Amino acid sequence: MPAPKFDRFKKYLGKHKPSIQEIVREPTSGGIVFRHGKTGDLEILLIQDAKDRWTIPKGHIEEGETALQTARREIGEEAGLTDVDMLGWLGKIHFRYRRLDRLVLMTTQIYLVRAKGDTNAIQKEEWMNGIKWFSFAEALDLIEYEDIGKLMLLAKKRIRQEGL
């Protein structure tokens, strides 16, 4: 019996991913940014990343920065909002993803943030596909990450209980 010919099956076998050589920890920080709209309804600011996923403004903690300082800076950089009240820590979430031969473990500290001043003057960064205020229900529906959604519910409860 002749040897089987595998050449025609090679196209079905995916490219071999390099094995994971390194585990990298990336601490990040961001905020669930809210305002009360014209009718008093709660609105949440979301950004749309380059892969069209809706999420909250967040970014890497730089050396010498606290997580709170990072959240404030990232909201300013990513949304153009600098007049904000940092109302406290909501929790942290963990992401895990692969970057070539590295396993990246990302921990994101999340803060509750009230936007003040001209909250319509939001500006998206070049790498973003969008930035927009949404009703709480829409934002919860659009948010791509379940853990952020849970913290949004916690944020809403705190806003209501504390009359924020």
From TrEMBL:
Boundaries of every Nudix hydrolase domain copy? 24-156
State the Gene3D superfamilies in the record.
Nucleoside Triphosphate Pyrophosphohydrolase
Molecular function terms from GO:
bis(5'-nucleosyl)-tetraphosphatase (asymmetrical) activity
Which CDD domains does the record associate with it? NUDIX_Ap6A_hydrolase
Keywords attached to this entry: Hydrolase
A biological process (GO) annotation for this entry?
A: AMP biosynthetic process
Instruction: Please name one Pfam family that this protein belongs to.
Output: NUDIX
PANTHER family from the xrefs? BIS(5'-NUCLEOSYL)-TETRAPHOSPHATASE [ASYMMETRICAL] (PTHR21340:SF0), DIADENOSINE 5,5-P1,P4-TETRAPHOSPHATE PYROPHOSPHOHYDROLASE MUTT (PTHR21340)
In the record, the note on similarity to other proteins reads:
Belongs to the Nudix hydrolase family.
Q: What protein name is recorded for this chain?
A: Nudix hydrolase domain-containing protein
